[in-house]
Design brief:
The complex is a heterodimer.
Chain A: H1 2-14, H2 17-47, H3 52-68, H4 74-92, H5 102-113, H6 117-126, H7 128-136, H8 139-142, H9 149-183, E1 191-194, E2 197-199, E3 202-204, E4 209-212, H10 213-241, H11 245-263, H12 283-287, H13 298-322
Helix pairs in contact in A: 1-9, 2-9, 3-4, 5-9, 5-10, 6-9, 6-10, 6-11, 7-10, 9-10, 9-13, 10-11, 10-13
Chain B: E1 7-16, E2 19-29, E3 34-38, H1 45-52, E4 60-65, E5 68-69, H2 74-79, E6 81-84, H3 96-105, H4 112-122, H5 137-149, E7 155-159, H6 167-182, E8 187-192, H7 195-201, E9 204-209, E10 212-218, H8 219-226, E11 228-234, H9 236-246, E12 250-252, E13 255-259, H10 265-274, E14 278-284, H11 288-297
Parallel strand pairs in B: 3-8, 3-9, 6-7, 7-8
Antiparallel strand pairs in B: 1-2, 1-4, 4-5, 9-10, 11-13, 11-14, 12-13
Helix pairs in contact in B: 4-5
The chains are: A mainly alpha, B alpha/beta.
Chain lengths: ~325, ~300
């Protein structure tokens, strides 16, 4: 099996697919870095000459005043205490919350690319894994070897998993390395709030707590990896079903973009939450953004995506091992 | 032929929807022979070959390669098989050598030195290290054969091996196929829609039309049986009756057709001439297989 995976990786590598993806990320990250930098600059200008420490101090005093008020619900009080601890940490460790370091940039980058950019890059690799063999005719040589069909498909899938891991790692490394030039490389230990959940219209803050940024980023990249793998698996299935790589890409592209559009539209169409493409923004659950449809949670989205991926795999293997190759 | 067959096809059928594509064909191939698989385009040659190599699942019937069933013992059966189905399609972005390495990795029983052997065998020289995208069709055909020979197969299946080659390439291919059968004792199955090709390189031939095999026989037997002489003579009736005394004669419009017999043909001619018949034309019918083919298939289109 190692040798089969070796073959698949060799082909991927020689088709320069991974190289192109690295190039795309390397081209986009400086773009985003510049945008982020401009934003920071504008915020700074708005504040004028006020030192950020003075401002943070002021915020802390505000929070303390609110906490001392007796007419306050317990969970809100708890939330404010956590906020206070966060602000105090920033002040103590001399961290300007308005001026992000490279880890913060990584975090923002990954949160914004989880539902479209990274799945698209994964799609580029996964789309022609099988369909290119069919359209190029090489599948005839591949399937007349003393190797069972399911092993050939499995080797391709393993190559896909490795590519997904590579793409996610590469985007992490590149976004850190490139943005660090502008923002500096520090800020791994910065505490961040997480643990939000929604119940009906309300934001539930009961479980909110602080975790260091490195842990936060690690969690987010884990989720990104999972999302990319699911999108990759579904693209892989289409690649088995269709001969034309362009058709595979077209369908997948339409699905992903439809997901982005639907997320803004479907709040009252409840059963849409079972579509894989509205469940891609897993990082939103960590940062506490509102969900597109009521009743969605991290666990729910993970399960929906998992079911789609397993379905995709079952279809891929069932079709590939049975189908007549013309 | 008392050897065990290299390939045994028994009652192979393929039905797609309600249409019978292949209607139950059977034949056996033996080591050391070149077997021609002849039929017009669309007769089912490629479908049959794809069923033999396991790309298409037969609706019924069995394929045994070296005695091993392709359906139930796929891996074992494939070890004895090398094939090119239709065009030799290899990875254009890899070099010839990398393509060979790629396919060698799929069968652990292939030693590294076998790669050098097959490159030597198909005489690729240094071009083997160029990207396949830069190869000519003839070069790709050679590489295709090299990859087919990697696993030391007992059976080599080549689908339209001379398609698209220039005359020199066709000749070379023909000699190479004969070489493989005679010197390496391979069983080679060659499909073609070109009669002349089959006639020149095959020992036996199966003629397939509309999904059925019409006839399997040695090329010699088919040709010998078929070689005829066409006569034009004046007066026709007299010539016909004279010839009828010595051989079988069929009259076709203004022509008389007799069997071709090298020893007799001169005597028959003298007999006609001495009897005062003016012989205007005598010719043997060529290529003979083509007529046979038309006769057998009832005039289906053939190139």
């Amino acid at each position: 099996m190692n040798k089969l995976v070796h073959n698949e990786l060799l082909k991927l590598f020689r088709k320069k697919r991974l190289f192109v993806i690295i190039l795309i990320i390397a081209a986009l990250v400086p773009l985003f870095t510049y945008a982020q930098y401009q934003e920071v600059k504008t915020t700074r200008e708005k504040l004028g000459n006020v030192d950020w420490r003075t401002q943070l101090q002021q915020e802390i005093v505000d929070t303390q005043n609110r906490l001392s008020s007796s007419r306050m619900q317990d969970d809100w009080r708890k939330y404010l205490k956590i906020r206070l601890a966060q602000q105090q940490y920033y002040l103590d460790h001399n961290i300007n919350p308005q001026a992000p370091g490279a880890p913060t940039f990584m975090r923002v980058f990954v949160e914004n690319s989880i539902d479209l950019l990274l799945p698209l890059l994964v799609m580029v690799v996964a789309a022609d894994l099988v369909s290119s063999e069919a359209s190029g005719g090489t599948i005839k040589l591949l399937l007349t070897r003393p190797v069972k069909r399911w092993r050939i498909l499995l080797s391709k899938y393993l190559a896909l998993i490795l590519s997904v891991s590579f793409i996610v790692t590469a985007s992490a490394v590149l976004s850190y390395a490139i943005s660090g030039v502008v923002f500096g490389y520090g800020g791994w230990g910065m505490p961040l709030l997480t643990g939000f959940s929604t119940s009906g219209e309300e934001l539930v803050t009961n479980n909110v707590h602080l975790i260091p940024q490195w842990q936060y980023i690690l969690m987010e990249f884990g989720l990104v990896w999972f999302v990319c793998l699911v999108v990759g698996t579904l693209t892989f299935m289409l690649s088995v079903l269709l001969r034309s790589t362009a058709a595979v890409m077209g369908i997948m592209l339409a699905a992903l973009i439809a997901g982005a559009i639907l997320s803004n539209m479907v709040s009252s169409w409840e059963s849409a939450k079972y579509l894989f493409m509205v469940n891609l923004s897993l990082t939103d659950y960590i940062s506490g953004m509102a969900t597109p449809i009521e009743g969605m949670s991290l666990g729910f989205s993970l399960i929906v995506l998992l079911v789609w991926a397993i379905g995709g795999l079952v279809v891929s293997f069932a079709v590939f091992t049975k189908k007549d190759v013309f | 032929m008392s050897q065990s067959p290299a390939l045994s096809v028994k009652n192979l059928r393929k039905t797609i929807g309600k249409k019978d594509i292949i209607k139950g064909i059977s034949f056996d191939l033996y080591p050391g022979e070149v077997f021609g698989f002849l039929g017009p385009n669309g007769a089912g040659k490629t479908t049959t070959i794809r069923m033999i190599v396991g790309l298409i699942k037969p609706s019924s019937g069995t394929v045994l390669i070296g005695g091993k069933n392709v359906q139930t013992h796929f891996g074992d059966a494939m070890k004895d098989l090398g094939c090119i189905v239709e065009n030799p399609e290899l990875y254009p972005y890899l070099t010839g050598w990398e393509n060979l390495e790629h396919f060698a990795r799929m069968d652990p029983s292939i030693p590294q030195k076998r790669l050098h052997e097959v490159v030597e065998l198909v005489d690729m020289g240094n071009r083997i290290h160029d990207r396949v995208g830069t190869y000519s069709l003839g070069m790709r055909q050679r590489l295709g054969i090299a990859q087919a020979l990697l696993g030391n197969p007992k059976l080599l299946i080549l689908d339209e091996p001379t398609n698209g080659l220039d005359p020199a390439g066709i000749r070379e291919m023909r000699e190479f196929i004969r070489f493989l059968a005679e010197k390496e004792k391979l069983c080679v199955m060659v499909s073609s829609h070109l009669l002349s090709e089959i006639q020149l390189m095959c020992d036996r031939v199966a003629i397939i039309s509309k999904g059925s095999i019409i006839r399997v026989d040695s090329v010699h037997a088919l040709l010998a049986e078929q070689e005829r002489v066409v006569w034009k003579a004046e007066p026709l009736e007299k010539a016909e009756s004279l010839l009828r005394e010595v051989t079988n004669v069929t009259r076709l419009q203004e022509n008389l057709i007799t069997l071709y017999d090298e020893n007799q043909i001169g005597k028959w001619n003298r007999m006609l001439v001495t009897a005062g018949v003016e012989v205007k034309e005598m010719r043997t019918k060529l290529p003979a297989l083509e007529d046979l083919f038309l006769e057998l298939t009832g005039g289906e289109h053939i190139e």
